[in-house]
Amino acid sequence: MSDLRTTVDRVRTRGARLRGARGASVRARLRELEAEVQENRRLNRRVAELTDLVTELVVPLARRDDAAVDAVLERYRSMI
């Protein structure tokens, strides 16, 4: 009976260590994923800004309105 208790205690100890290690790796992976989500949001915002810029430039370029094109580009340059 004593051997059984020793074996059970040993298995429980190993199980606790494994759960702790898995939990740490899950937490680390979660931190990585959260950082990647933030980077994705930043990139999506940048794409949206550039899309807005292109949209603002299309009409003046089609009309060959250099003053309007220069104004849009100046606003863009002041933002970066």
Task: Give a written overview of the molecule.
The protein has helices at residues 2-63, 66-79. It is mostly helical and 80 residues long. The chain has one domain (2-79). The mean pLDDT is 87. The termini are far apart. The longest helix is centred in the middle third of the chain and has 62 residues, at 2-63. α1 (2-63) packs antiparallel against α2 (66-79). InterPro entries: DUF6752. Residues 27-78 form the DUF6752 domain. This is DUF6752 domain-containing protein.
Radius of gyration: 29 Å
Name the poorly predicted regions: none
Shape: rod-shaped
> What's the overall average pLDDT, rounded?
87
- Tell me the major beta sheet: none
Distance between the termini: 74 Å
Helicity, as a percent range: over 70%
What is the number of helices?
A: 2
β-strand number: 0
Class by SSE composition: mainly alpha
Q: Percent of residues in beta strands? A: under 5%
- How many separate structural domains? 1
Helix/strand layout:
Elements: H1 2-63, H2 66-79
Key attributes of the depicted protein:
2 helices, 95% helix, rod-shaped
Give a short summary of the structure.
By secondary structure, this protein is mainly alpha-helical. It contains 2 helices and no strands. InterPro entries: DUF6752.
